[in-house]
Design goal:
Length: 189
């Protein structure tokens, strides 16, 4: 007898609701985790579509985004190694030449537009110091909100990295103006 209709007192009737409840809770938790995962994917990685994206599609997008990030990390590591090697080669050639060329080298401003966010990389010499808050102020005045900022010193150069997102996603960040103003700021010092 698999079904128990009525009150005959079988253990199966209490086990089924518990199992159903456990399964329902598991599905709810899985749905919540899928929603959380999908919310972490930047909007510019979604394909514009008017229909609602299924959970399977959300998981596929998340997997593709993670793969994209891994590839980007590898590229950035390679770039870092190349810069480190070139810095070591430059510093080992001559201490006098290095110290003279650091003062003469132009600062570098690199800005990457990532849709609703931007990444700003500023490279300056040790003697070309500027206040980081000034760069942050420029980004914020042009519609961005700085999420993270970091710097590192390698050889005779300082690498500043700023990550910002648009305060208002519909308006975005005026990247050309940000780049121009940062270039002026760095060249001033």
């Amino acid at each position: 007898m698999k079904k128990n209709s009525g009150g005959g007192g079988g253990g199966d009737s209490t086990a089924k609701p518990e199992r159903k409840t456990v399964e329902k809770n598991r599905r709810i938790q899985l749905k919540t985790l899928c929603f959380k995962l999908a919310s972490l994917i930047p909007h510019h990685h979604f394909k514009p579509s008017k229909e609602i994206v299924s959970q399977q599609d959300q998981l596929d997008l998340a997997a593709a985004y993670i793969k994209h990030l891994r590839e980007r990390i590898e590229k950035l590591k390679e770039m870092k190694e190349q810069v480190m090697k070139s810095m070591e080669a430059a510093s080992s050639s001559s201490m006098m030449k290095t110290s003279a060329s650091v003062g003469l080298s132009l600062p570098v401003v690199e800005l990457r537009d990532l849709g609703s966010s931007i990444e700003v990389i500023l490279i300056t010499g040790l003697n070309k110091n500027f206040m980081l808050y000034e760069a942050i102020t420029i980004i914020e005045q042009e519609g961005g909100e700085v999420v993270s900022a970091s710097f590192s010193t390698v050889g005779g150069k300082i690498f500043h990295t700023l990550h910002a997102q648009a305060k208002i996603s519909r308006v975005g960040v005026e990247t050309t103006r940000v780049c121009q103003r940062l270039q002026e700021l760095i060249s001033y010092y």
